[in-house]
Structures are given as structure tokens and as C-alpha cells.
């Protein structure tokens, strides 16, 4: 891989980092927002615990993105280390994608549970009232 290939990996990594930060920001907004229906009761609020591993995986993805950018900078400064940098960068990029996907799985699971609660809340409250 030459410097152009490294630049491509860095650009792709930056995109994943941006998406990771966007998901973290959106999840924080969901918690702090008052303009949407929040689950009522202790048990229904437990779905928000899915945010914690989601945040951890996205933070790991962001950290690996930072490592990839640092490797890209190092490759431009010392081209004799490109083979070593490329080897590390391939592993880091693969891990970054993996952690990003795991984070999305947790937030996707939260969304599925939240939507299920949102759709079923009328049925549950009507059956309790009857």
C-alpha cells in the first residue's frame, strides 16, 4: 500500500469516527430531551442501560480512528515505516469497524425495544384500565 492507500483508509476511518460521535450525540439528546415519550416505570426504563455498552463500543471505535489518523501522519513523516504502519492500520481499521458495528447493535436493540414499548403502550394501558 502506498501513501494514497493510507490516505483512503484514514478518510474512511474519519467517516466512521464522525458517525460514532453523531450516534453518541444523538443518544445523549434522546436522554436529555423532553419532547418525546419516555417509558414510565422502572422496568421499561431499563432499556436505557443498553446505552452504556453502546457508548463503550463507539468510544473504542473513536479511539482506534484516532490511532489510524496518527499512523497516517507518521507515514507521511517517515515513509520507511510504511510497511509496519500499514500492517497496524489494517488491524486497527478492521477493529474500528467491528466496534462501530457492535455499538450500532446495542443502539439498534434499544430502538427496537423502545418502538415496541411505544406501539404497545396503548394496548397495555387500555387492558389495565378495563
Tell me what you see in this structure.
The protein is mainly alpha-helical and 130 residues long. It has one domain. The mean pLDDT is 89. Helices cover 84% and strands 0% of the residues. The longest helix has 48 residues, at 82-129.
Features of this protein?
4 helices, 130 residues, mainly alpha
Helicity level: over 70%
Q: What Rg is obtained from the alpha carbons, in whole angstroms?
A: 20 Å
Oligomeric state of shown chains: single chain
How many separate helices? 4
**Roughly how many Å apart are the termini?**
68 Å
Number of spatially distinct domains: 1
How big a fraction of the residues is strand?
A: under 5%
Largest sheet: none
Number of strands: 0
Q: What is the residue-averaged pLDDT? A: 89
Specify the overall morphology. elongated
Which class do the helix and strand fractions yield?
A: mainly alpha
Helix and strand element order: HHHH
Would you identify the regions where 5 or more consecutive residues have pLDDT less than 50? none
Write the layout of secondary structure elements.
Blueprint (H helix, E strand, L loop, with lengths): L2 H30 L9 H4 L5 H27 L4 H48 L1
Helix pairs in contact: 1-3, 1-4, 3-4
Amino acid at each position: 500500500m502506498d501513501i494514497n492507500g493510507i490516505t483512503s483508509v484514514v478518510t474512511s476511518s474519519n467517516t466512521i469516527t464522525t458517525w460514532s460521535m453523531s450516534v453518541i450525540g444523538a443518544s445523549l439528546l434522546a436522554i436529555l430531551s423532553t419532547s418525546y415519550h419516555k417509558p414510565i416505570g422502572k422496568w421499561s426504563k431499563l432499556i436505557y442501560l443498553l446505552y452504556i455498552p453502546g457508548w463503550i463500543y463507539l468510544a473504542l471505535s473513536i479511539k482506534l480512528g484516532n490511532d489510524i489518523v496518527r499512523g497516517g501522519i507518521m507515514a507521511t513523516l517517515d515513509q520507511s515505516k510504511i510497511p509496519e504502519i500499514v500492517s497496524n492500520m489494517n488491524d486497527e481499521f478492521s477493529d474500528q469497524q467491528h466496534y462501530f458495528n457492535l455499538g450500532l447493535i446495542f443502539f439498534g436493540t434499544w430502538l427496537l425495544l423502545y418502538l415496541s414499548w411505544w406501539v404497545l403502550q396503548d394496548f397495555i394501558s387500555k387492558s389495565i384500565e378495563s
